[in-house]
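Complex 412.
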Amino acid sequence: MKNIGLFGFGCVGEGFYRLLQLSHYSDARIHRIVVKNPLKNRSVSSELITYNKEEILSDDKIDLIVEAIDDDVEAFEIVSSALKRGIPVVSANKKMVALHLDELIRLQRRYKTPLLYEAAVCGAIPVVQTVDDQFEFEPINSIRGIFNGTTNYILSRIQDERLDYEQALKQAQILGFAETDPISDVGGFDSAYKAIILSRHAFGLSFLPSEVFTYGIQMLTSDDFEFAQKQNLRVRLVPSVFAIENRVVAFVMPQFVSEKDPLFRIENENNAVVIDGTYSGIQTYTGRGAGSYPTAFSVFSDVRKILEGKRYHYPITEATYLQEKPENVILDVYLRYTETMVKRAIKFEFVREGFVDENYRYVTGSISLQELIDNRELLIETNSSVILLSDKPLLRKQVKRTLKQDAVLSVF
Ligand SMILES: NC(=O)c1ccc[n+]([C@@H]2O[C@H](COP(=O)([O-])OP(=O)(O)OC[C@H]3O[C@@H](n4cnc5c(N)ncnc54)[C@H](OP(=O)(O)O)[C@@H]3O)[C@@H](O)[C@H]2O)c1
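Predicted structure with NAP bound:
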C-alpha cells in the first residue's frame, strides 16, 4: 500500500479523497493532508490534517504527492521541491503547469521523477495523455475546442434562454460554475493555460501567456447573438493552436460555429477537444471539463498510472516547430464596435461586409493577428466584440494568393 500526501482539500482535493474511498482502490491511501486555513471545519479526522508542507515533503513514508491547491505560486514551490526530492507528483493546477512547464520537464528529467497533470486540462477528458501517446509519429495540424466549462455554460444560457451576459454569469455563480471574480474564465486566460500545455505536448513549443492572444466573452451583446442566430450559428469561446508549415500560432477567441463544427453541439459546462491529425483526420473528445468528481477522477487515474510506472514522453523536440509571427497570421473575423474611432483605428486586410445603424455597427473581413494584439486594449475599453468567422487562420502569403485568384476588393 503506497502513501499519498495530499495538498488541498477543496473541490478537487476532497473529491479525490472521497473517490479513493468509493473506489476501494487498495494500492494507495491518503497518509496526510496539507491545507491552509486552521479555522475551517474538516470532514476528515484531524489526525490527517496539517498546515505545514514539510510534514509531507520531508516524510520518508510518502510515496506520491497529489497537489490540488488554488495558489499557483505555492503550488510550484511544492511540486518543484517534491520532484527534487524524487517524489512523483500529480497536479491539477493548469496555471502553475502552463507557467512553468519547461522547468517542470527539466526537473522531471534531471531527477528521473514523473509529474502527471491530466486534471489540469479539460477535467475528465484524457487529452494530455492522448496527445502525448498517440501523435509522436503523426503531425498534428491543429488542436482547438471548448476548454472552459464556465464560459460554455454562460454562452449556452444566453443562447437557449435569451439571458443577457450578467444574468447568465450570475446563474453560473449561483450554481458554483463561476468564481466571484470570473475574469480568468470569461476573459479566456484559463483556456489559454490549457492550450499552452497541449501545445508543449503536440508541438514541443511552450508559449508564454503573453504570446497567446486572448479575447474573452465579456464584451458580447445580444446583437452578436442575434447575428449568430440568423445564420444558425452558435458562439463558443475557442482556444486554438494551429501548425501551418511547421510554424505554430495560438489564440483564444469567441468564434461563430456552424452545425458542421463538432463544437456546435457542446452545451453547458461540457468541454471538447478537437484534434486534426495529418493521417487520422478530425478526432473529437468530449466530456465533463470540471467539477469535483470529474476532476478528481482524472487525478485518481494519474495516481494509478504513476504507480504503474507511467510518465509523459514529450515526444516532439523543441526544434521541430517555431512560433509564427502574428503579423503573418490572417484571421477572418466579425468586429462589432460602438465608436467610430475604433473603425478608424483598426486596419483590416480586406473587408467583406460592413453594417452601420444607430446602435449596432459591425464589419467582417480579414485582419492580421498582430492588428488585434496591437489594439486589444482599445477593443476592450470600447466594449467591442471580436468573433472569429472561420476556424482556420491563413498565412499572409496564402491570403495574397486567394485575393489574386478571387479579385476581392476592400469595400469598407
Ligand atoms: N474545481 C475544478 O473543477 C477544477 C478543475 C480542474 C482543475 N482545477 C484546479 O485544481 C486546483 C484546486 O482547485 P479547487 O477548485 O479544488 O480549489 P478550492 O476548492 O478553492 O480548494 C483549494 C484548496 O487549496 C488549499 N490551499 C490553498 N493554498 C494553500 C497552501 N498554500 N497550502 C496548502 N493548502 C492550500 C485550500 O486550503 P483551505 O481548505 O484551508 O482553504 C483548499 O483546501 C486549482 O489549481 C484549480 O485550477 C480545479
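Residues 90 and 303 are 7 Å apart (CA to CA).
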